[in-house]
Amino acid sequence: MNAHLALLQAYPFERLRQLFSTVTPNPGLRPISLGIGEPRHATPALIKQAYCDAIMGTGLAGYPATAGESALREAIAHWLHRRYQLMVNPGTQILPINGSREALFAFAQTVLAPAASGARPVVVCPNPFYQIYEGAALLGGAEPYFVASDPKRNFAQDWASVPAEVWARTQLLFVCSPGNPAGAVMPLSEWKLLFELSDRYGFVIASDECYSEIYFRDEAPLGGLEAAAALGRSDFKNLLAFTSLSKRSNVPGMRSGFCAGDAALIKDFLLYRTYHGSAMSPVVQSASIAAWNDEAHVLDNRAQYRQKFAQITPLLAEVLDVALPDAGFYLWAGVQGSDEDFARDLYATYNVTVLPGSYLAREAHGLNPGAGRIRMALVAQADECMEAAQRIVAFVKSRQSS
Fold first, then answer.
1. What are the respective helix, strand and coil percentages of the chain, to the nearest 5?
2. Are 157 and 149 in contact (CB under 8 A)?
3. Which residue from 2, 35, 258, 282 has the fewest beta carbons nearer than 10 Å?
4. Cα–Cα distance, 303 to 123 (Å, whole number)
5. Is residue 333 classed as helix, strand or coil in its secondary structure?
């Protein structure tokens, strides 16, 4: 077996299962989970209809091409133009993927290679972070380097703190904007710094943007390709952006998204995926075309999240260190004491599941930036999220009075 498998840590939800293994939740309350970021709003009818129409047609009659149908790539290109005012070549700069999770992992295997010096290459990751980044680095034979983050700036990454000798060994940088779990959006100045570092040291940037369409400010989040174009980098050198329909269109089970950017990276990634066997089903492609071509359901989805967060954030802010994020569907809240104890005791007494923040980070530079925090995914319907918030308030107040 691949010896690198032994380096992988238990996934956050397996750790949560172990934490709860000896706990019997309050049987008098219905279970409510704010633990996993799985969209639970209704899937739009137009997407389901396109899916059904494709099944009833000839959608399953042949092997799909790894590059996807031209109609899908063109629909994605049109969406990129509408959303970011970008001109992206659908034939050379766009590649359909089976959700951003599998593609982010696979892309690392395409990029990483043994260094000429024999030293392990480095993959730079945010911290807290999406655990796939670390797994992709380790299975690719690389060493993850976790960047320090600033709690005073909504856990923005301190890229300037990374030593030059680390950048010199870096082959891949993962960024996540809007961020998971804190929901911060990277400004243009941050992108400018990263592009300058990429040019100096030659590493590739993989930009995870799956939360880009759920936001709470008037201005939509800046995307990586958008930032590159604004800085005169219209060839998107050494940059791929990854996104998904899961959050935008409430179709996590469909496993559909795309990556776009540097044509040379797309070409190599397509070669890898041709051997990897990751072509998207024609049925999913048909439904994806319908999804990328429609914005009405996205506006409705965003409005639902805005209403929930407007109601719930002030309520939780009375008892927790929490504020409205820039984007995403998580609240990243500070708690008193251990985040594991908080999550376990809340589950036991009020049958509400939240994720300990320390599970979403690694100890680096002397601390675990997720310690003492919890992540709450407000993905359920508004009434269920509100009931969970009310229970959390009651739980915190009971702890304070005991």
1. 45, 15, 40
2. yes
3. 2
4. 36
5. strand
What is d(CA 267, CA 223) in angstroms, rounded to the nearest whole number?
22
Q: Is 125 a residue whose pLDDT tops 90?
A: yes
- Rounded distance, CA 178 to CA 21, Å? 33
Residue 318, helix vs strand vs coil: coil
Residue type, 56: M
Residue 118 has pLDDT above 90, yes or no: no
Q: What percent of the chain has pLDDT over 70?
A: 100
- Domain 3-42+297-401: which CATH class? alpha beta
Let me know if the fold of 3-42+297-401 is the same as that of 62-294. Answer: no
pLDDT over threshold 90, residue 401: no
| DSSP labels, 223-235 | PHHHHHHHTT-TT
Can you tell me the distance from the alpha carbon of 8 to that of 328, in angstroms, rounded to the nearest whole number?
27
Q: State in words which class domain 62-294 has.
A: alpha beta
What DSSP character marks residue 136? H
Residue by residue, DSSP assigns 33-88 as E-SS----SPPPHHHHHHHHHHHHTTTTSSPPPTT--HHHHHHHHHHHHHHH----
Residue with tokens 């892309």: 107
State pTM to two decimals.
Answer: 0.97
* Token reading at 375: 């992540």
Taking 90 as the threshold, does the pLDDT of residue 116 lie above it? Answer: no
Residue ranges covered by each domain of the chain: 3-42+297-401, 62-294
pLDDT at 117 exceeding the cut of 90: no
The beta-strand segments (E) located in 230-299 are 239-244, 257-261
What one-character DSSP code corresponds to residue 364?
Answer: B
> Whole-angstrom Cα distance, residue 375 to residue 363?
17
Strand-pairing partners, residue 331, are 376
**Contact status, residue 355 vs residue 374, Cβ threshold 8 Å:** yes
pLDDT at 119: 86
Instruction: With H, G, I as helix, E, B as strand and everything else as coil, classify residue 240.
Output: strand
Q: What is the pLDDT of residue 115?
A: 82
pLDDT tens, position by position, 42-81:
999 999 999 999 999 877 888 999 999 999 999 999 999 9
Q: Which structure tokens are listed for 181? A: 């779990």
pLDDT per position as a tens digit, 210-222: 999 999 999 999 9
pLDDT of residue 145: 98
Distance of CA 332 to the CA centre of its chain: 14
Residue located via tokens 């927790």: 320
